[in-house]
Amino acid sequence: MSNRTLTQAFGGAAQLEDEIVRQEDREENVGSTSKSPACTRSPTFTLAQNGSQLYNITRVWKTHGELIVGYDFSSAIARFWPGEGAMSDKSLIEVRDITKVYDMGDVQVHALRGVSAQVDEGELLSIMGPSGSGKSTMMNILGCLDQPTSGEYYLAGVDVKKLNDNALAEIRNRKIGFVFQTFNLLPRTAALQNVELPLIYRGLSGRERQRQATEALEMVGLGDRIHHRPNELSGGEQQRVAIARALATQPEVILADEPTGNLDSRSGAEIVAIFQRLNRETGITVVFVTHDPDIAAHTRRIVRLLDGRVVADEPVENPQDAEATLAAILAEGEEEEE
Ligand code: ADP
Ligand code: MG
């Protein structure tokens, strides 16, 4: 089963949205306890358009004023999005001839020298390249944390250059979840409140914020650690809190700059397993930087940077399964202990 916002899943087909709303009303009329905020209904019904069955909807709930549906991939989805339920050819990120020059007074550092690339919805890709090749500069621009010196960036079709500061903050909060190598958690604050932070701008009640943050922590397997502070968690767990924080706003893309760079191989594999699972089950787009070819081998596409340029951009033939990698690492560890 997978969740997507309706507009994502149906490309904004208002007709379908109406159908869901009506179904939802009906559910409410049936007398479900509409007081409890989320996931109150677990109907199974079929969404049809032009007489042909589209989806078996298994769950509907409303959050941030958006309808979220959980639907069963086994239905007619393949007709619409061939290839494992991934969204095809809908561009989420498109950069054209991006340059970035850091002006250091007497020297100018050319960090990016004309990068063009496109990332479609539902992709899972890694960016590789030696230190200083421009990976972080690239990620900061993609994450709207920095602006290019020249070139164009379209995020979900929106020309980022045309946005004022408020609109930029809004699009960053709505569409992007950013994960850093060094986690960047508030040190004296519990996991739950760290994850709640990006939700504060949403005008949600404290209780609703807490519920969504708890759900995000559960998604990364930390449901039993929500009251731990960062220094009471391992590095891998801290990074999972950071991923939950990135997920809390239900962004369309996770951008992660060397998320496994500070972690041992087991914790690294756990992080990649989370990315794979999220990508598979929710269709969220994931782009992360790594210098480790073993980690990159778990993605479906690798973009290589060198001296501020894209030198390769290729699909991965047989992406590794992170769960299997993890199992192998654990088995190895047990052998060593014996
Ligand atoms: P990577 O992440 O691949 O190691 P970066 O994007 O961090 O590469 O850096 C690319 C180049 O830009 C490097 O030469 C780096 O020294 C330079 N650079 C990065 N950030 C800044 C900055 N804020 N000011 C000046 N130079 C920078
Ligand atoms: Mg870097």
Could you please describe the fold and organization of this structure?
Helix 8 packs parallel to helix 9. It is globular, with a radius of gyration of 21 Å. The chain is built from 11 helices and 14 strands. 36% of the residues are buried. It has 338 residues and is of the alpha/beta class. The strands form 3 sheets. Strands 10-11-12-7-13-14 form a 6-stranded mixed β-sheet, with helices on both faces. A 4-stranded antiparallel β-sheet has the order 1-4-3-2. It has a 4-stranded antiparallel β-sheet with strand order 6-5-8-9, covered by helices on one side. 34% of the residues lie in helices and 28% in strands. It folds into 2 domains: 79 residues, no CATH class; 247 residues, 3-Layer(aba) Sandwich (Rossmann fold). The structure holds adenosine-5'-diphosphate and magnesium ion (MG). Magnesium ion binds next to helix 4. The site of magnesium ion (MG) has 2 residues, from helix 4.
Describe what is shown at a glance:
Helices cover 34% and strands 28% of the residues.
Give the topology.
Elements: E1 2-5, H1 6-10, H2 14-29, E2 45-49, E3 52-63, E4 66-72, H3 77-80, E5 91-103, E6 108-120, E7 124-128, H4 135-142, E8 150-155, E9 158-159, H5 165-175, E10 176-179, H6 191-196, H7 206-219, H8 235-247, E11 253-256, H9 265-282, E12 285-289, H10 293-296, E13 301-306, E14 309-315, H11 322-337
Parallel strand pairs: 7-12, 7-13, 10-11, 11-12
Antiparallel strand pairs: 1-4, 2-3, 3-4, 5-6, 5-8, 8-9, 13-14
Helix pairs in contact: 7-8, 8-9, 9-11
The protein binds adenosine-5'-diphosphate and magnesium ion.
